[in-house]
Amino acid sequence: MNVFRTIKIKNIAAFLGCAIFFALTSCEEDLAKINKNKNTNFPSQIINNANIVQRDSGMIKLRATAPLIEKYEYIDSPYIVARKGINILFYDKKKPDAPGKISAKYARFNEKKKFYEAKGNVKIISNENQMFAMQSVYWDQVKKTISTKDTVYVTDKDGSTLVGANGMIAKDDFSEYTFYNNSGNINAQKIPEKGQ
């Protein structure tokens, strides 16, 4: 009788061991499936009424204000977005007292590519008081260029205007720029030349 009881206990122990092994294995598979389908496209940081100051060697490079800024960092290509608009003052070392300005209804910054895009009634005012108005603009920090394929309206401080019907490309400090299919009555002496 004791032999049968020992065999029964060993069989039950073996059965329970197998059951626990299969239960744990199936749990691991379920967790792998859950993690695979897990949504990571949600903001990791949210800033309401943002007021951001960026400095370089003690000098203010830019000031940005926005009603809402969201940072998405748990995805392959992290980005920061200002869905409710943004206003930026950017400072040049040559003219620290005369900042340039950018305003838009929407802005997005790709952190890996160092690439900005702004959309919706974009206005850029250079530190020379030239105003550029368009619907979208792209700033590549690596190449130090600003570009758009939208129609660009440029107004100089003396009131002269220029229209680039097929967009423009410019250095990010506006020391050089090229307009495509342009027209207007801007003073040609005020347009920067290469090498200046």
Main sheet: strand order:
2-3-6-7-5-4
User: Would you tell me the overall average pLDDT?
Assistant: 79
Order of helices and strands: HEEEEEEEEEEEEEE
Report Rg: 29 Å
Task: List key phrases describing it.
single chain, 196 residues, alpha+beta, six-stranded antiparallel β-barrel, 1 helix
List the helices and strands and how they pair.
Blueprint: H1 2-36, E1 45-56, E2 59-72, E3 79-82, E4 86-90, E5 100-104, E6 106-110, E7 115-125, E8 131-140, E9 145-148, E10 152-155, E11 161-164, E12 168-171, E13 177-179, E14 182-184
What does this entry look like structurally?
The model has no long low-confidence stretch (mean pLDDT 79). The chain starts with a helix and ends in a 12-residue tail after the last strand. It has one helix spanning 2-36, and strands at 45-56, 59-72, 79-82, 86-90, 100-104, 106-110, 115-125, 131-140, 145-148, 152-155, 161-164, 168-171, 177-179, 182-184. The chain is globular. The chain has one helix and 14 strands. It has a six-stranded antiparallel beta barrel with strand order 2-3-6-7-5-4. A hairpin with a 4-residue loop joins strand 8 and strand 9. With 196 residues, it is an alpha+beta fold.
